[in-house]
Design a protein that fits this description.
13 helices, alpha+beta, 40% helix, two-stranded parallel sheet
């Protein structure tokens, strides 16, 4: 964290109101408090739920209510979910109240325009580096550097080709999905740039001047929700004009303005009078080295893909022909009749043998 702060100061960035999201590790939490005292701290809801599970708060009912409260964009939905959690288990609600970090989306600062409440994007990066995990340290860093250089370079070229005011790929996808959902909403004009949108049996107030909706999703995410899009399309307006500047081409170009520059071969690097670092002595264990990530004790295991296996003998589902215990296909009345007909009409062809008498 201190190195990150020094890097910010070297680049002339003296901001203190950053937003950090972590998994509540004590070392990270204390370091963020000391280095960035004014920073906003979020907690990953997936790790928070696992902490609740470790403390004995689990079950399908609690799981459903917890994620309703975590994904609530307004205080009303959050309060209703917390009331049900209190009725289900008062100790679980008391434990959630002790969380000092922000974990529900309605708590987030609208100026940030980011409603992420998990660290899944970090897990995505870890998954991309999976092929390089069994490499030595130097080869591992070089492989990750080349992967990042290629990825940032592709984004750099994409940013150059973007037009002014164009939405990013993520924002365009969100707008398209919410546009499809807005077809089931009905807007009523109230005058003064205010509207009332009915979604199922609930009404939501919309104010285009302040870019706010009663559901809270527009303010927190920075992208118009389905209720706001219903109003925007009814008024023959352009949805791009109501998206936060963070999701447009200017911010995208600024993000990828500095790409990773190429490096020469290690054999051409200058020599340094530094001690040679030897790898640690490792006693190789028997068997093939494990490559998969070790899951936590309460983390759900990755299940097998569901598939319906059909037996080739009895034509029933749930087993194959090798483990079949039915003995073969069942013979119905039509099958028996056909078999009898073939037996009576069958027989060797040719001239019938004459009966001889003695």
């Amino acid at each position: 964290m201190r190195c990150l702060r020094q890097m910010f100061e070297q680049e002339g960035c003296n901001k203190d109101d950053w937003t950090f999201i972590s998994d509540r590790m004590k070392g990270v939490d204390l370091e963020v408090r000391d280095t960035f005292p004014r920073a906003t701290r979020r907690v990953c809801c997936q790790h928070l739920y696992m902490n609740c599970k470790n403390n004995g708060f689990s079950g399908s009912a609690f799981f459903k209510l917890f994620w309703i409260a975590a994904n609530a964009h307004n205080e009303y939905v959050y309060g209703k979910a917390l009331e049900k959690i209190t009725a289900h288990d008062p100790n679980a609600a008391a434990y959630l109240d002790t969380c000092q970090e922000q974990w529900s989306r309605h708590m987030f600062d609208p100026a940030v325009c980011c409603d992420h409440n998990t660290t899944n994007f970090v897990e995505s990066f870890n998954a991309c580096t999976k092929p390089y995990r069994d490499m030595p340290v130097f080869s591992l860093l070089e492989a990750i550097r080349k992967w990042c250089m290629e990825r940032v370079g592709a984004r750099f070229d994409m940013a150059i080709d973007m037009e002014d005011g164009q939405l990013t790929e993520y924002a365009k996808k969100e707008v398209d999905e919410r546009t499809g959902e807005s077809r089931f909403c009905y807007a009523t004009a109230c005058g003064g740039g205010e509207f009332e949108v009915r979604d199922a049996h609930v009404n939501f107030p919309i104010r285009l001047s302040t870019r706010s909706c009663g559901c809270g999703k527009w303010q927190i995410s920075g992208i118009p929700c389905k209720h706001a899009l219903r109003v925007i399309y009814d008024q023959r307006l352009n949805p791009i004009d109501f998206v936060s500047p963070f999701f447009k081409s200017a911010a995208y170009k600024l993000t990828y303005a500095d790409h990773i520059h190429p490096m020469s071969d290690p054999t051409q690097w200058p020599n340094f009078s530094l001690p040679t670092i030897q790898p640690p002595v490792i006693k190789r264990q028997a068997g093939r080295p494990a490559k998969k990530r070790k899951r936590g004790p309460n983390e759900p295991r990755k299940g097998k893909r569901n598939s319906n296996v059909k037996c080739g003998k009895c034509r029933e589902f749930g087993h194959n022909s090798r483990t079949c215990k039915n003995g073969g296909p069942s013979t119905g009345p039509s099958t028996s009749a056909a078999a009898g007909a073939s037996t009576s009409q069958g027989g060797p062809r040719g001239r019938k043998r004459a009966n001889t008498t003695t």
